[in-house]
């Protein structure tokens, strides 16, 4: 009996240790935001999934139409162009807080989540998490935003006809792809993690105003791959989450992201990043998004001969920085000579066009040895270097270019210069809204950055994260179940010999 007892106690101890470790990783898998600096856990939406070029392009078209109309954001992901980039974060809203999975977007402002009254809103997602509609009656701190509040007047550009006194402030956002969200504004607490030490956080919260989506249409109302609880907007206006938290002195009006295009996940932090040091360039004034002035394009060691007015074509001045888009879109007068010069490095290439827009070819050698890097020049000598393995991606045995010709797009996006994850992954990007500057540097996004606590002056490490979704939880419980089966087998085995 003693031998049998020892035989069952050892696997039981091992099992308990495995379960404890698995559940510990599950519970502590998130990151957060700080009271003076903060972080959001990030996850890449399509990790481990097959992608298609049509899906990739459809996502970018939909995303840009939304982006140019305005709405969205915090993060999650991998920036490979063959991975259809979409980043999302898990945040808590209400008292007691409930978890919501929201798309992270630096290109829009309003924060919104699906509301309990919404009949068309998705209730499940193929991403592997349960979706949770917000119910104001389940939060002790939730309050309606009235039509006469300043926030309502600012968001809607003045008084709304028929919306007076204590009536709930409505919102309606119609996107260029035909999808829309409509509802009313709520004031409640958003829960986040305040940076309190090196790779340590403590729970904190701040009051924000956000949309409670009572009606969604188009892609926003479907329970498909892109189904999420809502959008977290980190745009420039006063309605964005960074502006709202900064106005209540919860954070400085600064944030940073580092999208890990190699391992997935990454870093998203609010606050004053002090390391690594980053060279900054001014934001273009009077633009609704994060636009910067490009001054030149270099392919290898050769500067392209491009007229200065090409960089200022159209109503949208400068280059748009948008982590919600996967590829990089260039005006036709830049795209043409850029692609021509890249291809000229291998004169024997047989280039073919896939899906009418992707330049693809066969190449068996190292692309970094066979093709030149592309370097974009910006004001204040800020450079953005994109290596061949970043702007080329494999598809069905071919190498395809991630550069896209925006001159071939619809009228609303014609000749827009827009940089998405193709060029922003594996770089730490800093947004300093207090000084109206933005900057970036090449960086290992699975490592750490240093953020300063403005109250104490101390500097703390902030690391990368990857959100544990229900898919991961299910796989962990599958492992636990396997160990339980093995334990039963071991127990039966030892009883036979006792």
From TrEMBL:
Signal peptide (from-to): 1-29
Gene3D superfamilies: Acid Proteases
One of the GO biological process terms: proteolysis
Active site location: 105, 322
Xref: Pfam families: TAXi_C, TAXi_N
Gene Ontology MF term list: aspartic-type endopeptidase activity
Highest taxon of source: Eukaryota
Alphabetically ordered keywords of this record: Aspartyl protease, Glycoprotein, Hydrolase, Protease, Signal
The keyword Signal is annotated on this UniProt entry: yes
Domain Peptidase A1 span(s) in chain numbering: 87-441
Family membership: Belongs to the peptidase A1 family.
Name recorded for this polypeptide: Aspartic proteinase-like protein 2
The encoding gene: LOC111018586
